[in-house]
């Protein structure tokens, strides 16, 4: 599982960079892929224009080390909100994960805790967490 650049929203694959495990189970990544027609450009304005016309749909998979994709859900993007940076949602895998899931490998999880804390401080999130 290696990150690669996408040249359109239609060809993009979104995933966790590191795997997660539940109760010592097998390592797994979350992967999200576009379904249906998505904008051909990669700009946020192209994304907003497309969503204003019709919702965008995505399939959610769990991927094991053997590269098998297990379908686990569906996402629908039906609105793009414009907020100042300080009010944008943050995708913080240290804080925003189910309590029973562990980030792997554990040494990297500890390092990422500090990195995401610094990111929260940098964007002005003053709540003392993680």
Structure description:
The protein has 130 residues and is α+β, with helices and mostly antiparallel strands. It is built from two helices and six strands; from the N terminus they run E-E-E-H-E-E-E-H. It has helices at residues 44-53, 106-122, and strands at 14-15, 20-22, 28-35, 56-64, 69-77, 101-103. The strands form two sheets. Strands 1-3-4-5 form a four-stranded antiparallel β-sheet, with no helix packed on it. The radius of gyration is 16 Å and the shape is globular.
How are the SSEs ordered, and which strands pair?
Blueprint: E1 14-15, E2 20-22, E3 28-35, H1 44-53, E4 56-64, E5 69-77, E6 101-103, H2 106-122
Antiparallel strand pairs: 1-3, 2-6, 3-4, 4-5
Question: What structural keywords apply?
Answer:
2 helices, globular, 4-stranded antiparallel beta sheet, alpha+beta, 130 residues, single chain, 26% strand, 21% helix
Question: What portion of the residues fall into strands of 2 or more residues?
Answer: 25-35%
Indicate the structural class. alpha+beta
Shape: globular
Poorly predicted spans:
none
Largest sheet: 4 strands, antiparallel
N-to-C CA distance: 27 Å
Radius of gyration over alpha carbons?
Answer: 16 Å
Helical coverage, percent range: 10-25%
Mean of all residue-level pLDDT scores: 81
Short description:
The protein has 130 residues and is α+β, with helices and mostly antiparallel strands.
């Amino acid at each position: 599982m290696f990150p690669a650049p996408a040249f359109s929203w239609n060809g993009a694959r979104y995933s966790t960079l590191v795997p997660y495990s539940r109760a010592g189970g097998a390592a797994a990544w979350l992967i999200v892929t576009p379904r249906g027609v998505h904008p051909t450009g990669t700009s946020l304005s192209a994304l907003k224009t497309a969503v204003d016309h019709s919702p965008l749909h995505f399939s959610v998979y769990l991927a094991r080390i053997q590269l098998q994709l297990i379908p686990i859900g569906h996402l629908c993007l039906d609105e793009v909100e414009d907020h100042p940076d300080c009010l944008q949602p943050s995708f913080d895998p240290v804080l925003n994960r189910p309590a029973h899931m562990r980030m792997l490998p554990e040494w990297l999880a500890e390092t990422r805790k500090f990195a995401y804390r610094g990111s929260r401080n940098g964007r002005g999130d003053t709540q003392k967490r993680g």
